[in-house]
Amino acid sequence: MVHSEMSRLKEMKVVQFGLGPIGAGLVKYALQKEGMKFVGAVDIDKEKVGKDLGELTVGKKLGVPVTDDAAGLLRRTKPDIVLHCTGSYLKNVRPQLLKIIDSGADIISTCEELSYPFLKSPKIAKEIDARARKKRVTVLATGVNPGFVMDTLVITATTVCQDVKKITSMRIQDASIRRLPFQKKIGAGLTQDEFRAKVADGTIKHVGFAESIAMIASALGWKLDRIEEKVEPKIADAPVASEYIRVEPGQVAGVDQTAWGIRNGEQVITLNLQAYLGCPDPRESIVIEGQPPVDLTIRGGIHGDIATAAVAVNCIPRVISAKPGLATMKDLPVPSTWLGDLRQFVKKS
Amino acid sequence: MVHSEMSRLKEMKVVQFGLGPIGAGLVKYALQKEGMKFVGAVDIDKEKVGKDLGELTVGKKLGVPVTDDAAGLLRRTKPDIVLHCTGSYLKNVRPQLLKIIDSGADIISTCEELSYPFLKSPKIAKEIDARARKKRVTVLATGVNPGFVMDTLVITATTVCQDVKKITSMRIQDASIRRLPFQKKIGAGLTQDEFRAKVADGTIKHVGFAESIAMIASALGWKLDRIEEKVEPKIADAPVASEYIRVEPGQVAGVDQTAWGIRNGEQVITLNLQAYLGCPDPRESIVIEGQPPVDLTIRGGIHGDIATAAVAVNCIPRVISAKPGLATMKDLPVPSTWLGDLRQFVKKS
Q: Which residues of B146-163 are buried (b: 16+ CB within 10 A; e: fewer)?
């Protein structure tokens, strides 16, 4: 699109739906962009309702008050796109998604289970896809993981292969430098019994492995027998400490979670996430046993919070340009960051 | 697509256009695939015309004779897609491409200058795009480089970034293990004067850096001032040898080529390719100075010949499913390898 055409397009109207740490991260990044503006924000937290979106995120008034009346806001502001960050589980966020679709807005969500819902929630996936097609909007869920580092990047890396036998993707993270809630979430400082209790009640668990594995398998054309998952503690063998937590030998330093995609009885896809205090060599790693083999490492790893905001906001032009329906990362054009005005990247006819 | 629908689709008809080492590599890989079959092959080499495609590539008769009458073959066989591997320069291959487009076939070409021709050859790019739209076919040029490791993968890696200041992509290859023609092509064993003479007459040069840089810049929305390029010899400081060539200290061990994308006077994109005898640490490297930074390495590098065939053939379903026109890697859905029957990956309505 040439500049003279670009300037004729109006600014894209954006609503932020959900203002937890992830949602606030998206807002901070999105505010740096040109060609789009926030016309509203939704949260149910009484501490946030009525406050200004800018004051809650970047310490600067934007004139956009937070409301808990999503339906009213959507009807009044008619956004082009809604950035949705309220939860990991599809069942919980389904009514919100349907409400946004009915308002005629595209959606980018960070809901992990929505990133590739066809395996675990085929009925809801079908419902959302059908409704989105009917309302002529596009729905995408993404983030750093699921959404990028353990699925889209893995899929992309297989492009050079004539054959693939086995894929192993690992994220090895040093939790010492993360905020306290993250360190607590991974169980740092717990006894092994306390850790196992939290695994059993579901409070220690990365959501998204099943979705990433299903996306990879679909890209390659692998029919899987099943997906298996295991959450283990990473036990400290020497004392380790962060700014907030001290872990003694024998206590839990963090989490070590693995999931396998099983095909013809074999573990053909393995995803492993380790996040713990005192990790000596944080990195992302993708190893493809294939022809040719691929041994890819991102030294130091990718900063999760910054990257999730980046991936979600960076997908805005692709979602606006996409055909209606429930999209997934692998079906949209090659993703990238973009700099400058959103409207030069939008291809909607 | 479910299997019952898949089996109703006919096998895709493929023609191989050009049977040099790259073209033969594509045929070898493509012959492993289901759901597609070769219906013809074109080459102008009198040694190949009349011979069987299978005997020339995999030592097994296929019943597909090589012809030098491209127009007649295309008219007679009406292929769905043509794999085109005849040259690096767009001007030279333009008449072949137009002939294939007019026959109504999609094209995947390994012509380096076609991978992103909008900068260096905007007129031919426009002509090919217009003709392809008119004839309702899709044209894509790709390969390992240009096409993947120094553009598509670089673009993909920026997805996690909220800002990008500078991108450096390096391919460091050990030429000792490659075939003799490759070792000669990079100047191994030459004196420095001989090397510079071959650079001056254009026989030592990787084609594609300008295209890769233009594709990256377009994805990010960077307007470049210009692209600069430099081809230098890699001088041996100790004796090195391959199976074929011995290089004395002070002689040329291989090539060291760099290109820069300049924006506002700064080198914002740097691509560097080194291929030489005795390289101690072959690798692909992508370093993004940004927020967050990305430091990606593929240890051992990616085998160029295998990967170019892989990337080209792996793009078949995406090209068949794409809208008509001249496509580029960055505008098609996320690439991947695929295993099994082509028809389960084809989405043409």
A: bbbbbbbbbbbbbbbbbb
DSSP A2-68: -HHHHTTSPPEEEEEE--SHHHHHHHHHHTT-BSEEEEEEE---TTTTTSBHHHHHTSS--S-BEES
ipTM of the complex: 0.96
CA distance B6 to B337: 19
**What confidence category does residue B2 fall into, taking pLDDT thresholds of 50, 70 and 90?**
very low
Q: Are strands B252-263 and B226-235 parallel, antiparallel or unpaired?
A: antiparallel
How far is the C-alpha of B53 from the C-alpha of B196, rounded, in Å? 39
Check if B264 contacts A (Cβ < 8 Å): no
Predicted local confidence at residue B328, as pLDDT: 98
Q: Enumerate residues 268 to 327 of chain A having a beta carbon within 8 A of any beta carbon in chain B.
A: 290-300, 302-303, 306-307, 309-311, 313-314
Question: Rounded to the nearest 5°, which phi and psi values hold at A16?
Answer: -95, 125
CB contact under 8 A, B311 and A160: yes
Closest Cα in chain B, distance from residue A224 (Å): 13
Within 8 A by CB and 6+ apart from A123, the residues are none
Distance CA B16, CA B53 (A): 9
Size of interface A-B (CB pairs under 8 A): 177
B6: chain A residues, CB-CB within 8 Å: none
- pLDDT surpasses 80 at A2: no
B74: Cα within 13 Å, side-chain hemisphere? 23
Q: Could you tell me how far CA A58 lies from the centroid of its own chain? A: 22
Predicted TM-score of the model (pTM):
0.96
Position B334 pLDDT exceeds 60: yes
Is residue A181 classed exposed, middle or buried when 0-12, 13-18 and 19+ CB atoms within 10 A define those classes?
exposed
- Chain B residue at shortest CA distance from A160: B307
Give me B195's structure tokens. Answer: 């090397």
| Nearest in space to A231 (alpha carbons), one of A193, A197, A204 | A204
Q: Smallest CA–CA separation between A241 and chain B, in Å?
A: 25
Distance between CA atoms of residues A340 and A336, nearest Å: 13
Give the pairing of strands A66-67 and A36-42: parallel
Query: What's the token pair of residue B300?
Result: 């051992």
b/e per residue A194-232 (b: at least 16 CB within 10 A): ebbebbeeeebbbbbbbbbbbbbbbbbbbebeebeeebe
Phi, psi for A207 (deg, rounded to 5): -95, 130
| Helix A304-314 vs helix A21-30: crossing angle, to nearest 10 | 60
Residues 6+ apart with CB under 8 A from A79: A13, A14, A15, A39, A40, A103, A105
Cα–Cα nearest to B16, from B67, B50, B72, B51: B67
A318's enclosing H/E stretch is helix A316-321
* Contact residues, chain A, for B159 at CB < 8 Å: 148, 152, 310-311, 314, 335-337
Is residue A325 within 8 Å of A129, Cβ to Cβ? Answer: yes
pLDDT for res B1: 38
Mean pLDDT, chain A, rounded, equals 95
Count of other CB atoms within 10 angstroms of residue A149: 24
**Cis peptide preceding B146, ω within 30 of 0:** yes
